């Protein structure tokens, strides 16, 4: 069985079955229909409009009133006042939009030997079939080095290629025309203006244009080049796309494929996961395509190789939708076929955008993380305006959504989510994570003002409760609700557990970053570390940190979600926000906080008993939770539930509808099942299920300068190789047995027998 291949015996019936390609900026979904091919296309900067100032001018004066109403239990009044005075004006930021479609008509109605496949190791989509004694092959790739979408059509046999090609977009376009006898052009000046252009080249037949169609006839091969340019990146976008295609159309497909493959594999080959099924299982799936194998899993059968493919598909997606210089992965990565996608196809920053990048550093893909920081820099400037205009605070704030412009004003009129002020703070946790994995001091210098201003806002926005603790008000436990003791339904509250956990992580990160930069400044002979360090803010952050409420246990044995012991109204809610400290945070661990870990376990059990995990991304989060708690069997049970209950035929995560965060969050969870690293301890197979007896994992990045490979065979640890940039000592934990290892620079083979010598 060939590795890293998703293949199908039928064309995609709809968009959810199409196969994705991308290079971070351009995206395509290929249906693979023989008679009338549809290729839906995207460009990451095609959004519904330009930046807006949506900051509510009446927020500042109403904030004290709202706080007072919440404190007095007047929830209905507080929530009505919030809807009016703290909502954005207008309430919606910009949304991500489709660039349109490429339609290719062939006349091939009755075909045999049909196959379409996505090669995950090469990032190519191929469609092949036979028609009237001739084999027709379509090859597709989106090159990063050439920054272009390329399609090669070939025929092998007596029949020639006869294609009619058209560009389209649902309703919103200004012009559709042909040019130079070999190109089709589609333009739109609304929203963010853009130009789609397709050019035919390398054709041994005839090319002509008729009306808005490009026609290829009597050919055995033709290569189509497609690109999109927008006003987001250039005022001369129409000329830019034309000149770019003029430059690349002389390149041969095989040459483009070589450079594309080299670039893509520079990321893809950094890791590998190999799962070994039984001979019987392998034989059972040998002739089944990916869709049938997924269906087989839904009937209760095991398919470790499909799980392996799913893991690599997640890596493939991030490499394909988040590259340096592009926008970060949004709710749909880069793939969207709608003018009005679910939730605007935006960056939802109360978990979803963050989840997209949970595995980037663990799998040694730090470059793919960079677009998130570019967005955060744009947010920083807007968030300072929002903080001052709406709350009368210095610093930087963002709520639960943002768009390509970095809009930080509240999104929607939605009490469970709109008015939460920690979206920017959560994103800032990625700053220190990236630094810890890369030790890039210039990156930290560049991002430190963002981190500082996120803390500055909170030091001014925090308010004191009756116990002298510092809390946020108004706030909400993202997207959830409760019943107040007075019987009223509450969304807004004064303080909740997730808030305190995020702020605790943020403040620690700020303090660590501050001292790192201070040390760098003091150790640099010329004292030219170009950063201003605010000692006053640092003292304030330390004071606030000491006064945050602790994570507490509810009388029912679970982690408390709100500061008060409110009655939960949706026991199976998709958000499990009060376990942030378990994952992605590091405040709850079995070895250091056993009581909180037990409460976290009960929290998960309670959520799942009442239908929790019903969305793909929520199920992915649950995998990470169980992994952190060291329960491999329950982690794997949720992996299987994600694949069988929340996965589309093309392996996209199904919220429903499609959201890419579940793909990415589950990959993080699989990593956590095999490796975890904290407090200078590398945990080996900390949450690996009894059901899987064989696994090889290569290229896990534990921290800066330390990568790990592992092989587990017949239920026993057989090989561990640790590669270190410098000599160091670390602890290894395998099945709760601790061993101290002194590493030399380079590769270090660990004697796995050492664990058997340790008493239980």
TrEMBL record:
Residue ranges of domain Glycosyl hydrolase family 95 N-terminal in the record: 6-234
Mind telling me which Gene3D superfamilies this protein's record contains? 1.50.10.10
Per the record, the GO terms for biological process are: carbohydrate metabolic process
| Domain of life per record | Bacteria
Q: Name one Pfam family in it.
A: Glyco_hydro_95_cat
Q: Which residues form the signal peptide?
A: none
SUPFAM superfamilies, alphabetized: Six-hairpin glycosidases
> Under the GO molecular function aspect, what terms does this record hold?
alpha-L-fucosidase activity
The Glycosyl hydrolase family 95 catalytic domain, residue ranges? 253-674
Tell me what this protein is called.
Uncharacterized protein
Species of origin reads: Lachnoclostridium phytofermentans (strain ATCC 700394 / DSM 18823 / ISDg)
């Amino acid at each position: 069985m060939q590795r890293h291949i998703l293949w199908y015996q039928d064309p995609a019936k709809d968009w959810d079955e199409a196969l994705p390609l991308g290079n971070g900026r351009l995206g395509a979904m290929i249906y693979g229909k023989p008679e009338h091919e549809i290729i839906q296309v995207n460009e990451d900067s095609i959004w519904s409009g330009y930046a807006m100032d949506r900051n509510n001018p009446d927020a500042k004066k109403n904030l004290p009133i709202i706080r007072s109403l919440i404190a007095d239990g007047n929830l209905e009044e507080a929530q009505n006042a919030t809807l009016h005075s703290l909502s954005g004006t207008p309430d919606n930021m910009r949304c991500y939009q489709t660039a349109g479609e490429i339609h290719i008509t062939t006349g091939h109605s009755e075909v045999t030997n049909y196959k379409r496949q996505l090669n995950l190791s090469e990032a190519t989509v191929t469609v092949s079939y036979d028609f009237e004694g001739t084999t027709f092959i379509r090859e597709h790739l989106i090159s990063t080095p050439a920054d272009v979408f390329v399609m090669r059509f070939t025929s092998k046999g007596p029949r020639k290629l006869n294609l009619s090609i058209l560009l389209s977009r649902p309703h919103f376009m200004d012009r559709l025309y042909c040019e130079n006898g070999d190109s089709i052009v589609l333009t739109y000046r609304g929203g963010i203006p853009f130009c789609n252009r397709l050019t035919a080249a390398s054709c041994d037949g005839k090319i002509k244009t008729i009306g808005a169609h490009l026609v290829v006839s009597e050919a055995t091969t033709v290569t189509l080049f497609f690109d999109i340019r927008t006003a987001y990146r250039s005022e001369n976008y129409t000329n830019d796309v034309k000149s770019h295609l003029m430059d690349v159309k002389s390149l041969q497909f095989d040459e483009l494929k070589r450079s594309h493959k080299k670039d893509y594999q520079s990321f893809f080959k950094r890791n590998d996961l190999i799962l070994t099924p039984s001979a019987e299982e392998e034989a059972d799936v040998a002739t089944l395509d990916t869709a049938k194998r997924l269906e087989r899993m839904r009937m209760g059968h095991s398919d470790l190789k499909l799980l392996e493919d799913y893991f690599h598909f997640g890596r493939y997606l991030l490499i394909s939708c988040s590259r340096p210089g592009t926008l970060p992965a949004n709710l749909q990565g880069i793939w969207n076929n709608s003018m009005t996608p679910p939730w605007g196809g935006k960056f939802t920053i109360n978990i979803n955008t963050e989840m997209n990048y949970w595995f980037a550093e663990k799998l040694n893909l730090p470059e793919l993380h960079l677009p998130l920081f570019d967005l955060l820099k744009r947010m920083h400037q807007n968030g300072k305006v929002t903080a001052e205009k709406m709350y009368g605070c210095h610093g930087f704030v963002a709520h639960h959504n943002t768009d390509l412009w970095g809009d930080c004003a509240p999104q929607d009129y939605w009490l469970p989510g709109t008015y939460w002020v920690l979206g920017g703070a959560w994103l800032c946790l990625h700053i220190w994570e990236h630094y810890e994995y890369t030790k890039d001091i210039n990156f930290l210098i560049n991002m430190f003002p963002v981190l500082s201003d996120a803390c500055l806002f909170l030091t001014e926005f925090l308010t004191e409760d009756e116990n002298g603790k510092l809390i946020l008000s108004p706030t909400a436990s993202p997207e959830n609700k409760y019943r107040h003791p007075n019987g009223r339904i509450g969304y807004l509250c004064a303080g909740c557990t997730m808030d305190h956990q995020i702020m605790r992580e943020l403040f620690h990160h700020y303090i660590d970053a501050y001292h790192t930069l201070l040390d760098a400044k003091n150790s640099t002979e010329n004292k030219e570390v170009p950063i201003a360090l605010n000692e006053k803010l640092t003292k304030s952050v330390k004071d606030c940190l000491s006064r945050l409420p602790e994570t507490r246990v509810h009388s029912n044995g679970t982690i408390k979600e709100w500061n008060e012991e409110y009655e939960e109204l949706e026991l199976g809610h998709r958000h499990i926000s009060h376990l942030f400290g378990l994952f992605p945070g590091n405040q709850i661990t079995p070895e250091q906080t056993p009581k909180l870990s037990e409460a976290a376990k009960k929290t998960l059990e309670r959520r799942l008993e009442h239908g929790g995990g019903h969305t793909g991304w929520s199920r992915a989060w649950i995998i990470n939770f169980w992994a952190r708690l060291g329960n491999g069997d329950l982690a794997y049970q949720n992996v299987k539930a994600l694949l069988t209950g929340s996965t589309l035929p093309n392996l996209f995560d199904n919220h429903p509808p499609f959201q890419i965060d579940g793909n990415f969050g589950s990959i993080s969870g699989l990593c956590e099942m095999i490796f975890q690293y904290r407090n200078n301890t590398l945990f080996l197979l900390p949450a690996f299920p009894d059901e899987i007896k064989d696994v090889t994992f290569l290229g896990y990045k534990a921290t800066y300068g330390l990568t790990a490979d592992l092989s587990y065979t017949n239920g026993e640890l057989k090989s561990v190789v640790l590669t270190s940039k410098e000599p160091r000592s670390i602890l290894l934990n395998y099945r709760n047995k601790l061993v101290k290892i002194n590493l030399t620079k380079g590769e270090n083979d660990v004697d796995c027998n050492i664990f058997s010598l340790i008493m239980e």
